Amino acid sequence: MSAIRLDRVTKIYRRNHFFRTTYRTGVEDFSLEIGDGDVFTLLGLNGSGKTTTVKLILGLLFPDRGDIFIREKRHSGFEMFREVGYLPEVSYYFPYMEAEEMLFFMAGLGDLSGKEMRVRVAAVLEQVGLKDNAGALLKEYSKGMLKRFSLAQTILLDPGILILDEPFSGLDPVGIKQMRELIEEWRRIGKTLFLTSHLITEVEKISNKAGVIHQGHFVRLFDPVVPGRLENDFLESIHEKNS
Amino acid sequence: MKKIAKVALFSFHENRRNQNFYILLLFAFMLMAAGFLFSRFSTDVEERIIRDAGLGAIEFFAFLSAVFLAARQLISEIESKTIYTILTKPIPRSRYFLGRYCGVTGVILFGILIMGILLTGLLFLKGKAGSLNSDYYLAYVNIYFKILMITALSFFFSLLSTSVLSSMVFTGFLWIIGHLSEEIKFLAREASPLLFNTVRLAYWIFPNFSYLNTKSFPADAAAFGYPVAVWSILYVFSYTAVFLIMSIMIFGKKDL
């Protein structure tokens, strides 16, 4: 069964000026299928359409054409987030809220009972190493702590599908190693992962599939990923598309 | 309903901790204190000055809160992308929107209540308990009704605007228009038919706070003979509901 499927998805950004409207293609005729248990990475240059793809899968953007399916069900709005967790590239949170308070709020949105919430929030805080700072306001958190908090909220509802937008972005070497280990652990327990990244050397260590998006078009699928070759293959795909 | 309440509570706590809220509260306290000091110059109308200046300060605080909290609530969340991690949890956009609305109007009510208790206590201590009549308490209800309307409008226009500043300016503009609707309509009677009809259309679209003022209650409405309170409640809730429904429709389909 496919975990995520995009069927000929097109997104065009419209921008209204005073007397005219400009159009920019986000993604065009984009099709992709990611199976249950896959670790898939979408590679692309800046502005190639990676974030647009992530936002479309998450329902933050609406496609102009095409369909998106999560576990073979047409994108069904908010209900799918019981199965999907999202790690944003940059950790944007509400500065005046405490980390634990924020997690309780998010757990409440997932309809967890009071007891389930307490157990789950304590477990994720322990897992990401924020147990001792749970009562601090998020504005007092460092960049690294915010990334950990971000991870905590991603796995809070124990989703089967994880969408990680540039998970290695802003991490130091120790953080990168910890993130890689986490992703390997998630893969081991059977979660489906959809990643976007620039760090090809990291990606090829953890992904079994990868794809290249360039100027809004899906140009190549690597299935399986062959370690040591991904960087060259990626650059070749970009070059082919440009020529 | 449970999720709306959760978001409202979250929103209430978030806004209550916002420094802007306390700065506005402090500013309103200072206005009330100024009213108290001025009242000393005229013993004949001391009670009236304290009461009117106090109520004026509370209404001004409520209005500024709507500008600083409501007008920027959604738009700054979208700009800062904090909304992404919330809307990628199992909550429909409509409930999130309503929760936010309830949270903002809730925290403004909290501010009105704090200041109201202070003003009432002040009048009581001054031995002016006679001014604590039904009109005095009704003034608080009317201030809150205005906030319900202006917050709904502010949320609506913030979804259409592209910057926090334009959204705040628009909220301020609507507040002023809302207090001048009857006067503008009266003046437009002398204008050309085109201008008159345009003004009449705007009269029905923009808020009309005269419905919340017994002294300047619109004659057209009064002619129906219903009690003013019935008109006020009907007007406030139907107007607010229309803008909330339109906002939910826009927000539900908005690319973030």
Protein model, in words:
The complex is a heterodimer of chains A (243) and B (256). Chain A is α/β, with parallel strands linked by helices. Chain A is 34% helix and 29% strand. Chain A has helices spanning 50-58, 99-109, 114-127, 143-155, 173-188, 200-206, 230-242; strands at 2-16, 21-35, 39-43, 65-70, 73-74, 84-87, 161-165, 192-197, 209-214, 217-222. In chain A, the strands form two sheets. Chain A has a six-stranded mixed sheet, sandwiched between helices. In chain A, strands 2-1-4-5 form a four-stranded antiparallel sheet. The mean pLDDT of chain A is 88. By secondary structure, chain B is mostly helical. Chain B has one domain (2-253). Chain B is built from ten helices and no strands. Chain B has helices spanning 2-16, 19-39, 46-80, 82-87, 93-125, 134-160, 164-188, 193-205, 219-222, 228-252. In chain B, helix 2 packs antiparallel against helix 3 (46-80), helix 3 (46-80) packs antiparallel against helix 5 (93-125) and helix 5 (93-125) runs antiparallel to helix 6 (134-160). The radius of gyration of chain B is 20 Å and the shape is globular. The model of chain B has no long low-confidence stretch (mean pLDDT 84).
Could you name the key traits of this structure?
A: 243 residues, 6-stranded mixed beta sheet, 4-stranded antiparallel beta sheet, 10 strands, 34% helix, B: 256 residues, mainly alpha, 80% helix, globular
Query: Major sheet of chain A, described briefly?
Result: 6 strands, mixed
Q: Unreliable segments of chain A (pLDDT under 50, ≥5 consecutive)?
A: none
Spell out the helices and strands of chain A N to C. Answer: EEEHEEEHHHEHEHEEH
Note the total helix count of chain A.
7
How far is the N terminus from the C terminus of chain A? 36 Å
Largest sheet of chain B: none
Helix-strand category of chain A: alpha/beta
Largest interface chains and counts: A-B, 31 and 23 residues
Number of domain modules of chain B: 1
Structural class of chain B: mainly alpha
Q: What overall geometry of chain B do the principal axes of the alpha carbons give?
A: globular
Mean pLDDT of chain A: 88
What fraction, in percent, of the residue positions of chain B are helical? over 70%
- Average predicted local confidence, pLDDT of chain B: 84
